[in-house]
Amino acid sequence: MSDRIDHAKRALRADLRERRQMQSESARAQAAHGLRRQLDELLEQLDAHSISCFLSTPSEPGTREFIDAAVGRGIRVLLPITRADGLLDWAVAVAGGDVTAGLTGSPEPVGEVLGPIAVNDVDLLLVPAAAVDRTGMRLGWGRGYFDKTLGSMEKCPPVYAVVFDSEFVDEVPRDVHDQPVTGIVTPTRTVTFSTSAPR
């Protein structure tokens, strides 16, 4: 990665992180309710019965309400567990399941650990992001876990990044290893990018 691209990514991530931390509790709760509605509609639209998602941190778009409801409806939800080698293991979400801090400090499930290939069986991947641009290019938080996962999948299902509305931007800095997404889900809308975009 060039120094110019790396600097641009760091600057944008710092700005986005600060904006997230300035949100009020009521704004976060409202966003979580809206996000659940959008994600429920996406599941129905794609007829997804097995998905991957992530346990949100307090500053991220809230996924926990959606995950609990999906598990309650019989959807199989895989949650990521970080590994020291940069790959992701997975665990099946359970209602009221225990949570611990992962290698990056983010919440992760406690339970039977499935290997990295477990995610190959899902109908839909919901991934975190710092921002996504209008071409579907995703800017992650710099650790590369999801870029590696997406780049290694033989037959990738639809991938939607979960972001706040303000994080759908005109352009993000990109490098060769960065992976585009199929669409985004925000608290107010779902956007699917052109099928001609690279996946």
TrEMBL record:
Enzyme class: ligase
EC number from the UniProt entry: 6.3.3.2
Molecular function GO terms recorded: 5-formyltetrahydrofolate cyclo-ligase activity
Cofactor(s) recorded in Swiss-Prot or TrEMBL: Mg(2+)
A Pfam short name: 5-FTHF_cyc-lig
Organism: Microbacterium wangchenii
Superkingdom of the organism of origin: Bacteria
Chain coiled-coil ranges: 5-52
Catalytic activity: (6S)-5-formyl-5,6,7,8-tetrahydrofolate + ATP = (6R)-5,10-methenyltetrahydrofolate + ADP + phosphate
Gene3D superfamilies, per database record: NagB/RpiA/CoA transferase-like (3.40.50.10420)
Listed NCBIfam families: MTHFS_bact
Protein name, UniProt field: 5-formyltetrahydrofolate cyclo-ligase
Keywords: ATP-binding, Coiled coil, Ligase, Magnesium, Metal-binding, Nucleotide-binding
Family stated for the protein in its record: Belongs to the 5-formyltetrahydrofolate cyclo-ligase family.
